[in-house]
Description:
28% of the residues lie in helices and 17% in strands. By secondary structure, it is an alpha/beta fold.
Amino acid sequence: MTRFLPLFFLVPALVAQTPGLKLGEPCPTFSLPGTDGQRHGPEATTPLMVVFLSTECPYVLATQARINAYATKYAGRVRVLGINANDVGTHAKESLADMRVQASGQGFVFPYLKDEPQTVTRAFGAVCTPDFFLFDAARRLVYRGRMDDSWRDAAKVTARDLEAATDALLAGKPVSTEQPPSRGCTIKWK
């Protein structure tokens, strides 16, 4: 006889096993090339949201307009950086040139960066695309989880987890520690 654990019992185990940065830890320092021809890093005096992206992942393709809308909504209050670390050796369409096409086609209002050596992505402990990391103005991690509860269909979103965390942070309120993990495609490591 097979026994199944209730979902509410399994979710904390999944969150507890998520590798990488833990709440309260500092943002890794970095300087990466962007689709705009400039180098970008985490410097700034406002909160920072870093999202790991892909040019091909269906999860990213389904949410990239929402990610751009988030960047537009919080412009001037939260700095947004997108990072693509996927290996171009095995996934040629993850190149900086293809990233430029994606950023232009979507009208990204945030810098989109390439982590070719994957060292920054490893420092964050990102595991999928998209994977969201929100830092306060002191660059301490306050949120790591999903954007919302319906990656596939924006019309079915009922919980906007990233926005709730951002609104709490900007209002000077505590960010909930209930942070459902992101779902997405695995990062294509070298």
